[in-house]
Amino acid sequence: MIHEVDEGLRRLLGESGLEASGVEVVFDAPTRDWAARRSAPTVCVFLYDIREDPVRRGSGTEEVYDADGHLVARRTPPRWFDLTYLVTAWASRPQDEHRLLSQVLACLVATDTLPARLLTGTLAELGLTVALDTAGAAADAPAAADVWSALGGELKASLGVRVRAPLAGVTTAVAPPVTEGLVVRSAARREGGEAEPGRRLRYLETSDPGPEGFTGPRERGAPPARRRRRGERQP
Q: Do 188 and 125 reside in the same domain of the chain?
């Protein structure tokens, strides 16, 4: 799910014209060594915090059906996580960095969700809303100054972006539907050592004849066979 959120953000920023103007969008950690190797205008979207939202944690299972309406699996509810990114712009001059950061800010604040057309993988399959909060106050996220200190770099202008996305639940396949009747075989043998054929106790509602040695299927609408009472001999 995390890499799918990354791809959604990359596509969203790409639509703002960054990539068309030669600006690279990366997801690297903006350490001091990394910054020294940059030679082209770059927007860095660094993921530094992942936390589950326990309030939205569900329970139980949901049923999954195929195109024909048959039950094929059961799936636990998705779990929701907050992914917090540090977005920075890198160029040769501070003015150019601020211009890039302004373009990124205008793109991100224009929407509160990642558009469905930009979602891939499990995010697209679930069809749930992926919320986007730009430059908001995330009280539970580490401060930007602490992040820069941990990275060993100097503090610079940045945007905090939080994405709330679902992690797909565990899917368990169910057994296929029953298509054949129950068959009982006995250990009795005919003369010559040949085994007795099996006997079908339940019947399929079909006009196809049963396999050789088995009782044929019951015709649709035909009355069920009378059950013998205890002690009654078979005619």
A: no
Sheet bearing 131-134, strands edge to edge: 24-26, 42-52, 79-90, 159-167, 131-134
Q: How far apart are CA 57 and CA 234, in angstroms?
A: 61
Helix (H), strand (E) counts: the chain: 5, 10
**Domains identified in the chain, total number:** 2
Q: Do 199 and 162 share a domain, yes or no?
A: no
Residues 91 and 76: their CA atoms lie apart, in Å, by 46
For residues 212 and 124, state if they share a domain.
no
Q: What secondary structure does DSSP assign to 31-83, as a single string? A: -HHHHHT--S-EEEEEEEEEEE-GGG---S-EEEE-TTS-EEEEEPPPEEEEE
| pLDDT tens figures, 191-209 | 655 666 655 555 444 444 4
> What radius of gyration, in Å, describes the C-alpha atoms of the chain?
32
Model confidence pLDDT, tens digit, residues 27-78: 999 999 999 998 899 999 999 999 999 888 877 777 778 888 878 888 888 9
Q: Are 130 and 118 in contact (CB under 8 A)?
A: no
The single residue listed with the structure tokens 């106050």 is: 137
Closest by alpha carbon to 64, among 139, 1, 126? 126
**Closest alpha carbon to 165 in 44, 6, 32:** 6
Say if residue 208 is in the same domain as residue 126.
Answer: no
Q: What is the residue range of 161's domain?
A: 2-173
